Hints:
By secondary structure, this protein is an alpha+beta fold. It is built from 3 helices and 3 strands.
Amino acid sequence: MYFVYVIWSKKLQKRYTGSTKNVEKRIKQHNDGRTPFTRRGTPWILIYFETFETKSEALKREIFLKSGAGRNWLDKMFPEYKAS
């Protein structure tokens, strides 16, 4: 199984979207400061995830969620976590 996840930093008022095989482990890495891009936004909270059978399906969805249309979809689905 592969996952696409969206996490939120209240400190930065920003979302981060990624993909992984282990969501819990990956969020821990973000919150432990092991990911340069998210290091300064801790703590990060999981706001959304989806499950996929293959890595390629997960990567396609991740790319969509990072696109303008995908960001708009996230804004509509989770207005309380709209990136500033």
